[in-house]
Amino acid sequence: MNRVFIKTYGCQMNERDSEAVGALLRARGYCIVASEEEADVVLLNTCSVRDQAEQKALGKAGRLLRAKRTAAANGTQAPLLGIIGCMAQNKGHALVDSLPDLDLIVGTQKFHQVPTHLDHIMESLRGLGPRPSTIIDIAEEEGSQNAINGHAPGRRVSAFVSVMQGCDMHCSYCIVPHTRGAERSRRMEDIVAEVRALAAAGTREVTLLGQIVNRYGAKEFRSSGGKSPFAQLLEKVHAVEGVERVRFTSPHPTAFRRDIVECFRDLPKLCEHIHLPVQSGSDRMLRAMRRPYTRERFLRTVDALRDACPQMCFSTDIIVGFPGETDADFAETLALFDEVRFDMAFIFKYSTRSGTAAAALGDTVPREVKEARNNMLLERLGAFSLARNQSLVGTEQEVLVEGRARRGEGVFMGRNRGNRKVLFPGTADMEGRLLPVRISRATTTVVFGDVVKH
User: Fold this and answer.
1) How many other CB atoms sit within 10 Å of the CB of residue 417?
2) pLDDT tens digits for range 152-205
3) Chain centroid offset of residue 373 CA
4) Closest listed residue to residue 247, CA positions, set 210, 276, 205
5) For residues 118 and 84, is the Cβ–Cβ distance under 8 A?
6) Number of alpha helices (DSSP H) and beta strands (DSSP E) in the chain
7) Tens digit of pLDDT for each residue in 74-118?
8) Pairing verdict, β 273-275 and 184-185
9) What phi and psi, each to the nearest 5 degrees, are found at residue 190?
10) What is the model's pTM?
11) Taking 90 as the threshold, does the pLDDT of residue 129 lie above it?
């Protein structure tokens, strides 16, 4: 009864949390398996940022619990089920009302307690103690980051490293300050030690993670020599031997100071790709969203990054159909989208999130209007992405080989420095290496090529 399957919904932070929970469970003697069919325990690591993500997790939990009841009626054992992460933090005790057969609910600041809670449940199943009712652990805990971070999974070519948790920005549409709490940063030396351990285990690329990653250390540490704590951290991670590439996500436009921009000019390992969420191109909508920058300021940041690194690739987040968004507001978003020519974007149709300031505004934009605006942006995005990929045809790209592609015999996959997916014929010994690949053709989402043999 020690096989655990973890299914992750949501962002890279959730992926990193799932990896860390898995490492903690392995250290306690549990076995992490690849499918729910072979599991004794299923953990759903959930997201609350979008209603759709919550509904997916709730639907999955409902199906698993129905199968559990059927198994019990037939005298067989079905997997235990736990909900962890953002939805557990946000919904808490309310989840038991809709899903009364849950075994475990653990919030974002108590991930490190998952092994202990599972131990208690397992002991009860072996007759070593009373069977607990649903265990609910969503209390905030000082220092919880230190308890979960630093527990790296097995060898990974590319790895996420959490540097901070929480958010103090309180955008009107966002539930993250409630699910993740206030901003709090890890000690710089602990982060660097984790990166060194990853490099020693074979990791060649690290991505620094935070809800607003470029505000790292803003409350805990001082600037030094005109450099913010985050710029200092980037320099220290850049200096770790064995790490060949550094990325970070997700920053906030208002925290993009000159010193961080200059890191793209001065640190060769820092890849020329940035995810810079804009949300809207309309100043009126940005004010309603409580995004403390203007369209002009966002574009100045884009220009500064391109000046520092002419090959910079940009991705972004955009919300269409925010309450009160007019055709004129959306036209400004389209114009900004065309001016920046984003290489990638996550485009969301606004949905009301209870507990946010925007919930009081209602959902005023008709669904069909949201759909039309969403499709217009997706059409432009496809054209920009294809043009960027086609511009790579005939060039030689440095590719970090991540492993076998999902499809195709002898086909391997990696990414260039601009975070574009590259497919090419390869062999297993290439994994983890930086190789030159000459690009021969391109589609909207991927480019194809062959390894250059110098």
Assistant:
1) 20
2) 555 689 999 999 989 999 999 999 888 888 999 999 999 999 999 999 999 999
3) 25
4) 205
5) no
6) 14, 19
7) 888 889 999 999 999 988 888 988 898 899 999 988 998 999 999
8) unpaired
9) -70, -40
10) 0.87
11) no
Residue 232 has pLDDT above 60, yes or no: yes
C-alpha distances (whole Å) from 45 to each of 53, 81, 367 are 11, 11, 29
**Which of the 8 DSSP states describes residue 130?**
P
Say how far apart CA 454 and CA 274 lie, in whole Å: 31
CATH topology of domain 396-451: OB fold (Dihydrolipoamide Acetyltransferase, E2P) (2.40.50)
Residue pair 3/40 in contact (Cβ under 8 Å)? The answer is: yes
Handedness of CA 250, 254, 257, 262 (dihedral sign): positive
- State which CATH number among 3.40.50.2000, 3.80.30.20, 3.40.50.10190, 3.40.1360.10 fits the domain covering 144-390: 3.80.30.20
Q: Please name the CATH architecture into which domain 3-137 falls.
A: 3-Layer(aba) Sandwich (3.40)
Residue 335 region by backbone torsions, left for phi larger than 0, else alpha for psi between -120 and 50, else beta: alpha
Beta bridge partner(s), residue 276: none
Picking from 12, 73, 87, 79, the residue whose alpha carbon sits closest to that of residue 355 is 87
> For residues 180 and 86, is the Cβ–Cβ distance under 8 A?
yes
Where do runs of H (alpha helix) occur along 202-249? 229-238
- Phi, psi of 208, rounded to the nearest 5 degrees: -80, 130
Q: Which of 133-147, 327-341, 412-426 has the lowest mean pLDDT?
A: 133-147
